[in-house]
Amino acid sequence: MVKKFKGGAGKRKIIDKLRNFKQDVLTIPNLLTSIRIILVPVVLLFIWLDTPLMRLWSWIFYTIATVTDFFDGYLARKSGAVSVSGKLLDPLADKFIVNLTLVLLVSMQEISAWPVIIILAREFYIFGIRSLAMEHDLVIAADIWGKTKTMLQMFALPFFMINQKTLLDLVNIDWDPSGVGYFLIWSSIVFSLISAFTYTREVKRKIFG
């Protein structure tokens, strides 16, 4: 009788864990975030193939990915489906699509390495700051500076993905859009450095007083 009871209790725990997993992970906002992550290698592949048509497709799938970034956050807040996994996956998806695309564009000599080095260095630094905060059971939420940084970087990338050759071949427009892209990238770096400073100050205040 005792063994049967324990077995039933164990089974109920497994069922409860599966139910909690479904409630936390299998939500529409998280599925949209997952789609964004899945689209990252698709975007990278089309850029790497480097034909005008493939560049156009990279822009189309990139646009779909960035649209999901808006809707997953909106739906999560509206439906009250903000979850722990969502808080982890959403910024991770943003970093995947932005940072990996930047690295690929540098390797193809489509963008200067220096702004990308600064962006990646800042990301590693913030990772260290967040790790220190987690050791003290602190959660440092993204502030307006960090969110603006991400938005500017997302807006900047299409101006490098659709380059001068692509515009000339597809729509016969002889214009180099990278100037706009560089303006947005360097603007994002200003916001990223400000956000790094605010994160550091917040962690210092909460940990060391």
Overview of this protein structure:
- The protein has nine helices and no strands.
- Helix 2 runs parallel beside helix 4 (84-107), helix 4 runs antiparallel to helix 5 and helix 5 packs parallel to helix 9 (178-208).
- Helices cover 85% and strands 0% of the residues.
- By secondary structure, the protein is an all-alpha fold.
- The protein has helices spanning 2-25, 28-49, 52-79, 84-107, 113-135, 144-156, 158-161, 164-171, 178-208.
- The mean pLDDT is 83.
Please write out the topology.
Blueprint: H1 2-25, H2 28-49, H3 52-79, H4 84-107, H5 113-135, H6 144-156, H7 158-161, H8 164-171, H9 178-208
Helix pairs in contact: 2-3, 2-4, 3-8, 4-5, 5-9, 6-9
Radius of gyration: 21 Å
Shape: globular
Report the structural category.
mainly alpha
Q: Uncertain runs with pLDDT below 50, 5 residues or more?
A: none
Number of helices: 9
What is the typical, i.e. mean, pLDDT?
A: 83
Q: How many domains make up the 3D coordinates?
A: 2
**Which band does the percent of strand residues land in?**
under 5%
Helix content, binned percent: over 70%
How far is it from the N-terminal to the C-terminal residue, by CA?
56 Å
Number of strands: 0
User: Can you write the helix and strand succession as a string?
Assistant: HHHHHHHHH
List keywords for this structure.
209 residues, mainly alpha, 2 domains, 9 helices, globular
Quick structural summary:
The protein has about 210 residues and is mainly α. The chain has helices at about 1-25, 30-50, 50-80, 85-105, 115-135, 145-155, 160, 165-170, 180-209.
